[in-house]
Every structure is written in C-alpha cells, then in structure tokens.
C-alpha cells in the first residue's frame, strides 16, 4: 500500500478554510510568553506519552517558557481530541495524536465529537512501521514461508492486535488479503497481552508496531517476519520489508503528530512548527526515539494536512470492504 502523499502535495492538493489561513501561507513565527500544554490521549508511560514528553522537553524555551504534557486517556484518544477541540485557539494547547484517530476513526465510528476541520495539523513528529511476528520456534522465517505454513493448516490461523479498529488491525487484513489467507482476528487491550498469548500458544501471530516487538525479538522469544516500512529499520537491518518480499502495496507507516485547535493564528502555528523542527534536530532526542524504533519525521503544516486527508481517503474503502464498525 503506497500512499501517494508527497506526490499529491506536490501537485497542490488544496488546503482550505482554517488550514489555509493558519498554515498554508508563510507567516512570521510568534512564540508564546506563557506555559503551553500538550494533551496526550494515552496513559503515562506508554509509547505515545514517551514521544510527547521528549518533544515537550526540547520545545521548552523555544515555543514557550514551559511545555508540559497532560494525559487525557480514554476512548482510544477521542477524549483528548474533544478536550483540545474546545481549547482556546491561542497556541497554549496542542494535542499529540496517532494517525488512526484522524484517518481511520471517521470510517468506523458513526458519531465522532470532532473532525479534522476542528484542528490545524502542525507536523508529524515520528513514524513507525507495522510488523507481523510469530514465536521464535515457528517454522516460517518470512511471508512466503508463513503463507505455505498457513495453507497447510487450511487457513485456520489466528492473529492478535492491540485492539479492533486500530491501524494494525486493518494492516493485517490487507496482509491476509495479499497473501491469500483467511485469518481470524483476535483483538486485545494493548500489545502486551497479545504478545503474552502468542508466547503461550493461544494465537498464531501478532500484528504490532516494530518497536513493541523488538525487546522480545532480541531476547530470542519472537521472530519478525517483515516490516511495513519503505526501508529496512536501521536498528533491525536483518529484517526484510514487505516490499522486498514482493508486496510493495503493503508499505505503510503510522505516525504521531501535533495539532492545534482551529482558528489558531498563523504566526503561532508557524512558531509551533519551528519548535518541532528545532526539537527534531537535537541528537539526543533523535537517539532516544531511535532506541524505541521510531523514525523522526517532520513536514510543514500544509503538507501534513494534505497527508492526513490523503490517508483518510485511502482507509475509507479498506474499512468499508471489511464491514467493520466500532461500538459507539
């Protein structure tokens, strides 16, 4: 699955309304003289929280005198977005969110209390690939061998994900379709319990971010059959990408990004973006993120907005074909 995002941006995908006013035109950056907060939609200590805190630390003194992270977990990130949507659009409140809340959720929830038009995308901050993992003693070492093994079992294969309706859920549906396999989805509340059941033999595979599997892989408990990144991961150079294994259509990366409420003044949006660039250039931040298997990723607000819209359009038919609808 290749998202033609950069090509669409280059062709001038139009950004309208608040996005155009707040981000598409160059403006003089205007940093804040008061405390800013980054609302994060997931619990403290998790991957999203760690990334948000790293950026907050390095945006401090650049974007605002203090930048703090406020956890607002619940409803898969929706509570954080609802809180940020209602914040005063003066730059003091940003929200740190994963792609799926903007690109997949609109297709699986019949009623959402927010829309992309309620926010101005500032920049992505990291991106990360999906991986398909099995136990270390599994006979398959790559997608081709996994396919052969699965077909010998008449397709009676189960896979776990961190939850129904997640990016990894729909990524694995696309993997199964590409491999010609029927695989049963087993949703969990997070990656850790899914990996625990994999190691216990209750399920056959787990679809998760590469970073979530790395520790157990290096400990010799798991085998990673491939990753969805466009290139091999620097810290996992021995793991082939899906494209290298003959499935370029499975190339995809999830991201975390920063957003401001709609109607935030253009100079403030520009200041937030410049602060992200300053943070992303810090060697210590990059090193910390790379240890967690994240790739530092930034892009200007207008380009980021185009990417979010293009990915949202991409996932619509995928979700529709699956027939999946989340519980309200």
From TrEMBL:
Keyword terms, alphabetized: Receptor, Signal
Leader sequence residues: 1-20
Keyword Signal: yes
The UniProt record lists the keyword Signal: yes
InterPro entries: BUG, Bug_dom1, TAT_signal
Pfam family, one: TctC
PANTHER family: BLR1237 PROTEIN (PTHR42928:SF5), TRICARBOXYLATE-BINDING PROTEIN (PTHR42928)
Family that this chain belongs to: Belongs to the UPF0065 (bug) family.
Protein name, per record: Tripartite-type tricarboxylate transporter, receptor component TctC
Organism name: Muricoccus roseus
């Amino acid at each position: 699955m290749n998202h033609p995002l950069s090509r669409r941006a280059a062709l001038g995908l139009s950004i309208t309304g608040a996005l155009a006013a707040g981000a598409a035109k160059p403006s003089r950056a205007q940093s804040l003289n008061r405390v800013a907060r980054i609302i994060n939609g997931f619990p403290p200590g998790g991957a999203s929280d760690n990334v948000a805190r790293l950026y907050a630390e390095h945006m401090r003194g650049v974007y605002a005198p203090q930048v703090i992270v406020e956890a607002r977990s619940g409803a898969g990130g929706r509570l954080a977005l609802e809180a940020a949507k209602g914040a005063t659009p003066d730059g003091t409140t940003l929200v740190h969110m994963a792609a799926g809340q903007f690109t997949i959720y609109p297709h699986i929830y019949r009623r959402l209390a927010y829309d992309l038009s309620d926010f101005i995308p500032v920049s992505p901050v990291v991106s990360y690939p999906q991986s398909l993992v099995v136990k270390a003693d599994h006979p398959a070492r790559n997608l081709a061998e996994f396919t052969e093994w699965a077909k010998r079992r008449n397709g009676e294969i189960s896979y776990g994900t961190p939850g129904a309706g997640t990016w990894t859920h729909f990524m694995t549906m696309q993997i199964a379709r590409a491999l010609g396999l029927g695989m049963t989805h087993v949703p969990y509340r997070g990656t850790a319990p899914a990996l625990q059941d994999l190691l216990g033999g209750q399920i056959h595979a787990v679809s998760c971010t590469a970073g979530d599997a790395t520790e157990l892989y290096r400990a010799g408990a798991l085998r990673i059959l491939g990753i969805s990144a466009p290139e091999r991961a620097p810290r996992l150079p021995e793991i082939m990408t899906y494209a290298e294994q003959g499935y370029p259509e499975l190339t995809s990366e999830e991201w975390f990004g920063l957003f401001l409420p709609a109607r935030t003044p253009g100079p403030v949006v520009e200041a937030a973006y410049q602060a992200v660039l300053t943070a992303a250039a810090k060697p210590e931040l990059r090193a910390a993120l790379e240890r967690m298997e994240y790739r530092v990723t930034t892009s200007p607000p207008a380009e980021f907005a185009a990417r979010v819209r293009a990915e949202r359009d991409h996932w619509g038919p995928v979700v529709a074909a699956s027939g999946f609808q989340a519980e309200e």
